[in-house]
Amino acid sequence: MDMDLKADLVTKKWLPGFTVILASAGGALLAGTLASLWGFTGAGIGLATAILASFGSIIAWVFLDERLKRAKRGPSAAIPADRVDELTGLANKNGFDAWLSEKSNQRADEKTRVIVLAADLSNFKQIVQSRGTEQANAVLKEAAGRVSSLKAIDGIAARIEGEEFAAVASVVPDGALEIATSQAGKLAELLQRPIELPFGVIWIGGSVGAAIGLPSEGNEVFERAKKALIKARNQNSGHFFVDGFSKE
Q1: Residue 168, by phi and psi: left (phi above 0), alpha (psi -120 to 50) or beta?
Q2: CA distance 12 to 197
Q3: What predicted TM-score, i.e. pTM, was given to this entire model?
């Protein structure tokens, strides 16, 4: 739909109500003026009504103005449905890949590095078998929240598939490996914490792999993070491995 048409529709929808508010405010002001001629009590009530009505009209004006601006700008850029994991609300693999590709173009000239964390849950299939799908899904949602807590403000968290997750953070080059180690260790620790559900406590575990690189190398950095995850997994649940930093 054309943006001007949208703005016109919004105007037609909200302007009548706004006109009523202005009329009410004008009436209240008139009532306050007349009441002031009748006595102190009437004046007090009338003026109070006028002030409140006028204040309401100002709020209405600001609200309408913002609605018109939004209509002219068009709807907020929503994340395409095919980029979102329906269960957890995080990005899915498609959304994660798209983010890496789009951000690499935006940050081509920036002197930053991206840290990519790859993680998975331990013994998740056993949880599905012993606890059922409902509780297993609750575990995935909780794990998604913990992974998401590690992403940067301008980063992204994703459920890649099944019980595998990923998160991205941006850091300055200096000390990047140390920060990557800190983040990988923190996520590994978070995944070891039990999950308290209405049906009881579930102990989960997980492994974490991390890698750093230029924003333009996002997909390659993710591949190295996944390889680091395999090395961490080989050390059993609760371990993490940072590409180019951890000892094998």
Answers
A1: beta
A2: 49
A3: 0.67
Virtual CA dihedral for 213, 140, 154, 211, nearest 10 degrees?
-10
Spatial separation of the C-alpha atoms in residues 234 and 140, rounded to whole Å: 22
Element (H, E) at 127: helix 124-131
Report residue 117: phi and psi, to 5°: -110, 130
Per-residue tokens: 112 = 């930053």
DSSP string, 130-161: HH-HHHHHHHHHHHHHHHHTTS-TT-EEEEEE
Q: Radius of gyration over alpha carbons of the chain, in Å?
A: 28
The string of pLDDT tens digits covering residues 57-91 is 443 333 334 433 333 333 334 578 889 999 999 99
153's tokens? 């403000």
What residue type is 39 in one-letter code?
G
Task: Measure Cα distances from 123 to 67, 117, 225, 235 in Å.
Answer: 50, 20, 21, 14
